[in-house]
Amino acid sequence: xxxxxxxxxxxxxxxxxxxxxxxxxxxxxxxxxxxxxxxxxxxxxxxxxxxxxxxxxxxxxxxxxxxxxxxxxxxxxxxxxxxxxxxxxxxxxxxxxxxxxxxxxxxxxxxxxxxxxxxxxxxxxxxxxxxxxxxxxxxxxxxxxxxxxxxxxxxxxxxxxxxxxxxxxxxxxxxxxxxxxxxxxxxxxxxxxxxxxxxxxxxxxxxxxxxxxxxxxxxxxxxxxxxxxxxxxxxxxxxxxxxxxxxxxxxxxxxxxxxxxxxxxxxxxxxxxxxxxxxxx
Amino acid sequence: xxxxxxxxxxxxxxxxxxxxxxxxxxxxxxxxxxxxxxxxxxxxxxxxxxxxxxxxxxxxxxxxxxxxxxxxxxxxxxxxxxxxxxxxxxxxxxxxxxxxxxxxxxxxxxxxxxxxxxxxxxxxxxxxxxxxxxxxxxxxxxxxxxxxxxxxxxxxxxxxxxxxxxxxxxxxxxxxxxxxxxxxxxxxxxxxxxxxxxxxxxxxxxxxxxxxxxxxxxxxxxxxxxxxxxxxxxxxxxxxxxxxxxxxxxxxxxxxxxxxxxxxxxxxxxxxxxxxxxxxxxxxxxxxxxxxxxxxxxxxxxxxxxxxxxxxxxxxxxxxxxxxxxxxxxxxxxxxxxxxxxxxxxxxxxxxxxxxxxxxxxxxxxxxxxxxxxxxxxxxxxxxxxxxxxxxxxxxxxxxxxxxxxxxxxxxxxxxxxxx
Lengths: 281, 420
Description:
Radius of gyration of chain B: 25 Å
Strand content of chain A: under 5%
Distance between the termini of chain A: 35 Å
Order of helices and strands of chain B: EHEEHEEHHHEHEHEEHEEEEEEHEEEH
Largest interface: A-B, 46 and 55 residues
CATH superfamily of the largest domain in chain B: P-loop containing nucleotide triphosphate hydrolases
Number of helices of chain A: 14
Order of helices and strands of chain A: EHHHHHHHHHHHHHH
Radius of gyration of chain A: 21 Å
CATH topology of the largest domain in chain B: Rossmann fold
Strand order of the largest sheet of chain B: 5-6-7-3-8-9
Strand content of chain B: 25-35%
Low-confidence stretches of chain A: none
Oligomer: heterodimer
Structural class of chain B: alpha/beta
CATH class of the largest domain in chain B: Alpha Beta
Mean pLDDT of chain A: 89
Number of domains of chain A: 1
Helix content of chain B: 25-40%
Helix content of chain A: over 70%
Number of helices of chain B: 10
Number of strands of chain A: 1
CATH architecture of the largest domain in chain B: 3-Layer(aba) Sandwich
Largest sheet of chain B: 6 strands, mixed
């Protein structure tokens, strides 16, 4: 007789207590590693299958945004500020880190809704689905990094050896993306307004955060940037690649801890409430 | 849990909300309450909620086959989804022991742009198989599905038969200890269906438990030993397949009226109400004794009290064994009614040709409903009709044939003189 015993009853997780939640989550993630990879592969294959330029689409958004900013700057409409490296490198590198967050969050918050018909017919790990959906943004990131490499060669600049730390230093921004992705995918499943809201919010946040322009020195935007964790999570890795150190280390560390907390809280909330989504999606 | 029981359902209830906007609010509120560690008070009904399943209890032992039968909207699929853990009960408790394989819809989760091969791996992973298991069984799956060279073609180019075959092949190779099946065997061609039944009984012989949902009593008899009859979310009867299926069809027969005309009193709470139904013979006079060689009509009068979208009026005909012969809708001929139906009184008439059904007793029911929501506004019937044979060709040549249909089809025979 099989040992797997599953019980379904209302407010199930609460009865077992908060501590058992963590081992439940850990076991579920471990068990579904292969499923997560399959979802990731499916999204990746499917995204570019019926498309001519395929995966190179990942380069279009940063090139267009950066191009627009260069034109605005040259026409004197907008002041990019003081940057001590060629602007395209600064901007494309910033966009690469930024889209880890923005593209990752848009994809993950839509992941449950897009799989709606499957969720009401098959019982599988919804965490695997959300996690896998952020995989595309990592692929885009890698492709954009190749573009950054080409720019380094073009401008004859040698990046700092600290560039090797990039896989580790993007962990905080990935954690905050995943955490928010968990909660927003759930809410989007219940209320479709969330999905639309996120697309608008992302554009707004991109202009609010110094990604395509230098950190302002005075004014209201300077104050906001001071308390904007996203700024530190993006400028930290960028400074590391360009200068080999993180000048605003304190801000980066505080933001990293914050993103770790956001991730854990959101993961637990998702675990407690994911059973609610199938009946409302 | 009783000895050997692999599924135990104790006093389980499930509620749904009929208003989409409220459902959103309730959803957000429940999520918030669960997050804060508060009980969601799911055992109480809020505004616009109703019990889709009400106090259901049963047990399935190892190797046992259980059927769930009942009319549309009785909660059969909801029960199956709860056994699979897709929906969670709002009251009561479900305990499941062993790996569950569920076939609620074949091929759910297929990605149209990916090839059959890619989809096999993804779908198997979704259904809970490990990489090792899929690698081992991949060839069996392909062979069972009879896909052949199409395995490397995107599934959007598959015929519906191939799609279903591949989906079923993956699910059946999961080797579950508990198999949940929701009428998926109604699709696919005869050969493949036979193969599916064979594979199912092979799995059952290994000690797998089966829960099977259907409103086809023939399939139910064939597969299940014990059957539950559900009606409006409640268990009406729970026992051996013979007795439950019999009482289901008896009930249908008992509640049937032999009167050729039914009028119902005005009930203003119904959005669409069927006011009267009449069975008319070929001369237009109301009678339930009809000539099988002649056409007959079913006349319906109904009132629509509010503008309604997506509604239809349907005429169902069943045999006494519960086999569903006809589901004919007014929107088949007037699709504009599916979009919109203005308030007012309507008369509708549907004509059945002569020589369609064999002689015997049949049951006619009239429904008005919204197909997408499983929402039934009103229902009348079943009404009995007796078709009499007044001397067809079939009786001249031999006794009554044991078929439901009595179509006379054109045969063409030619003879050639030279012997082969």
